[in-house]
Amino acid sequence: MRVVLPADISQGATLPLKSDASNRSAQRLIAIVAQLGLDLDTANPRYGRRDIDGNPATLETTCNIAARDFAHAMGTPIVGARANDQVAWLASIDARQRGWATISEHAAHGCAEEGMPVLVGWHSRGAGPGHIAIVMPGLEEPGTWIAQAGARCFSRGLLAAGFGDRAVSFFAHP
Among the residues of 50-150, which ranges form H helices? Predict the structure, then answer.
């Protein structure tokens, strides 16, 4: 199902298919991510590279917006404007009080297979914005599978395609 999302990232995306703790499944999670249109790669009008900071020489990406849209469709809270902010919040006491838990990569596989919202993030310790992505069900294939917006947008790729060899953290919400 192709859903037209607003290109204006200040507007929330209203996705027709949603989930909550009562109807989680791997198939539903995959269908919710499909609504984001991440397979359009960087030509996606909502998640593709764009000039956000007023410097057209450096185009920014919107992995944080994709994570926000996904979390809202999954009925889970998320805060933060940049990926670094989101990753820091997901690791916070406030996030734990709202149901998020920091989990292992192995546990992330199982949670995604059950259709739970699982995010993976890297917090940049430098001036960069960090990165955040959605953990996808493995569909009986080895590896950690993700969906992401960023320099490359895709609905299914291996963790290394989005994060390289960076040290990442995994977060799940029931």
Answer: 63-73, 83-90, 93-97, 105-113
89-121 per-position pLDDT tens digit = 999 999 999 999 999 999 999 999 999 999 999
Residue 30: in which H helix or E strand, if any? helix 26-35
CA distances in angstroms from 141 to 44, 55, 76, 145, 156, listed in the order given: 27, 41, 27, 9, 12
In this prediction the pTM is: 0.91
Q: Rounded to an integer, what is the distance from CA 174 to the centroid of its chain? A: 16
Instruction: Read off the pLDDT of residues 15-39 as tens digits, 9 standing for 90 and up.
Output: 899 999 999 999 999 999 999 988 8
CATH fold of 26-172 reads endopeptidase fold (from Nostoc punctiforme) (3.90.1720)
The answer for residues whose C-beta is within 8 angstroms of residue 102's C-beta and 6 or more apart is: 90, 91, 169, 170, 171
**What is the bridge-based pairing of β-strands 101-103 and 118-122?**
unpaired
